Structures are given as structure tokens and as C-alpha cells.
């Protein structure tokens, strides 16, 4: 069993730490993305953040964002304007973290969270519960809850749901006999022939090989679906489970 350290920003072609992004740090957390603003004028940093979002639209689209503004004092008009501009780009601002009591009260008035949850210790499924004949696979007969992480060179079959905060990384296919609402990366070694199947497809993040799936902003449950690569793009189609 090999556990890989994944960095969603780097996987999407995003390169934090570059000169133009030196005052803006973006990283993945359990609840979505955490954006930390360094030194600089609020209006300038806001525009630079929005520019980065536009340059990497597929990576940010549909994301839940928490914003750490440090000691900045922000009022309702400033914070509300940014929230609306992010919403126009299909990004949900759900939390603003600050050392300023004024900014914290402003966020609360706007209905935003002001604290991030304490990460739970990562629980990794290390042992193969059973093996399907012919190919290496992990069969998991339970729901994967937040904090669980599965990593394997073979396939993964889950009889149960994959909840937000749970993660599956497989070099082969991922089949979920339940709801997919967490993170899945199939074909992790670059195999674009891998597929992801679920009875309900509503992932936090889905990847096949080096491609990202960008779900519609208002995706309705279409029943069982299969995600696969077609012409260098991940598409979903009905999954005939019979």
C-alpha cells in the first residue's frame, strides 16, 4: 500500500509561490479551499485573486472557499462585494477568518463562518478486505466518512457511500454502489481508460489520470452514472447497473 501526498493546486496546473502569487496562498482543506492573503492593499489583492480564478477556471469552479484576511478590517460592503463576485464565478465564500474583531463581526452578520474545523486524524484503509479474481482490487463494505483515505495500485469497489471529506486514490477503476460526494482520483498513474461509477455522482472533486471533472453548477441527480475520458475531457453518462 502506497500513500501519496496529493496537492490539488499543483495537479490542476496551479503553482502557488510564484512571484505574481507571493501575497496569495491557496491550499486545499477538508471543507474546500483556504485562501490566505499576505501583505498588500485589499483592492489590489482582491483583483489579483479574481484574476487567478479566471486563469484557472476549471480548478476553482464549484469550490467552497474560506478566506484568511489576517489583521485586515473589512466592512460589510467590502466583504459582500467580494462574496458576490466570487458567486458570479461559481465559487461559494463560506468563511472569513481574521484576527480583527470588526472583520469577524462583519462575517457573522453576513452569515459566514469565522472558524475552521479542527482536522481529524487521517484514517487510512491499509488492508485489502478481499480480492476479486483476475485483478487486484479493494472491496469496502461500508460508508467512507470524512477523514478516511484509500490508496491502492488496483481498483476500488465501495458498497456504501463516499461522504465529503473522504478520499479514494486508485491506479485503476473506482466503482461506488452508493453516493459519491467525496474525492476520487481514478487512473492515478495516468491511465485515461479508467472509469468512475456511482449510483449518485455528486463529487467534491473527481479526477481521471491528469484530468479534472468540472460538474455543472446546478447538477441534478440523474441516477447511476459513469465518468470516463472522451477526447481529453471527462464526461458522465448513464451507468447501466443491470
Report a brief summary of the structure.
With 242 residues, this protein is α/β, with parallel strands linked by helices. The protein has helices at 8-11, 42-55, 57-60, 76-88, 101-109, and strands at 24-29, 32-37, 64-70, 92-98, 123-125, 137-140, 148-152, 155-158, 167-170, 174-180, 183-186, 196-201, 205-208, 211-212, 225-229, 234-238.
Structure commentary:
By secondary structure, this protein is an alpha/beta fold. It contains five helices and 16 strands. Helix 4 links the parallel strand 3 and strand 4. It is elongated. The two termini are 32 Å apart.
- Class based on secondary structure composition and strand pairing: alpha/beta
Mean pLDDT rating:
81
Portion in helices = 10-25%
Overall form: elongated
Low-confidence stretches: 1-20, 126-134
Following the backbone from N to C, one meets helices and strands in this order, namely: HEEHHEHEHEEEEEEEEEEEE
Strands across the major sheet, in which order?
A: 5-7-9-11-13-14
Number of helices: 5
The N- and C-terminal alpha carbons lie at a distance of 32 Å
Beta-strand level of the residues, as a percent range?
25-35%
Radius of gyration: 19 Å
Number of E-state strands: 16
Largest sheet: 6 strands, mixed
Amino acid at each position: 500500500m502506497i500513500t501519496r501526498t496529493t496537492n490539488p493546486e499543483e495537479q490542476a496546473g496551479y503553482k502557488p509561490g510564484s512571484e505574481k502569487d507571493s501575497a496569495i496562498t491557496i491550499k486545499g482543506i477538508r471543507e474546500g479551499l483556504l485562501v490566505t492573503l499576505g501583505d498588500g492593499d485589499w483592492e489590489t489583492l482582491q483583483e489579483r485573486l479574481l484574476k487567478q480564478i479566471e486563469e484557472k477556471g476549471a480548478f476553482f469552479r464549484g469550490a467552497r472557499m474560506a478566506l484568511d484576511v489576517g489583521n485586515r478590517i473589512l466592512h460589510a460592503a467590502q466583504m459582500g462585494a467580494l462574496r458576490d463576485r466570487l458567486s458570479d464565478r461559481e465559487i461559494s465564500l463560506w468563511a472569513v477568518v481574521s484576527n480583527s474583531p470588526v472583520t469577524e463581526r462583519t462575517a457573522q452578520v453576513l452569515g459566514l463562518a469565522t472558524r475552521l474545523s479542527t482536522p481529524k486524524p487521517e484514517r487510512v484503509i491499509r488492508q485489502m478486505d478481499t480480492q476479486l479474481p483476475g485483478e487486484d482490487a479493494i472491496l469496502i463494505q461500508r460508508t467512507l466518512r470524512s477523514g478516511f483515505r484509500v490508496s491502492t495500485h488496483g481498483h476500488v469497489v465501495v458498497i456504501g457511500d463516499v461522504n465529503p471529506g473522504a478520499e479514494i486514490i486508485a491506479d485503476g477503476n473506482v466503482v461506488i454502489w452508493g453516493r459519491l460526494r467525496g474525492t476520487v482520483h481514478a487512473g492515478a498513474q495516468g491511465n485515461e481508460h479508467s472509469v468512475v461509477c456511482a449510483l449518485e455522482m455528486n463529487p467534491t472533486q473527481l479526477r481521471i489520470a491528469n484530468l479534472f471533472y468540472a460538474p455543472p453548477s446546478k447538477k441534478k441527480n440523474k441516477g447511476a452514472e459513469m465518468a470516463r475520458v472522451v477526447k481529453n475531457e471527462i464526461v458522465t453518462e448513464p451507468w447501466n447497473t443491470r
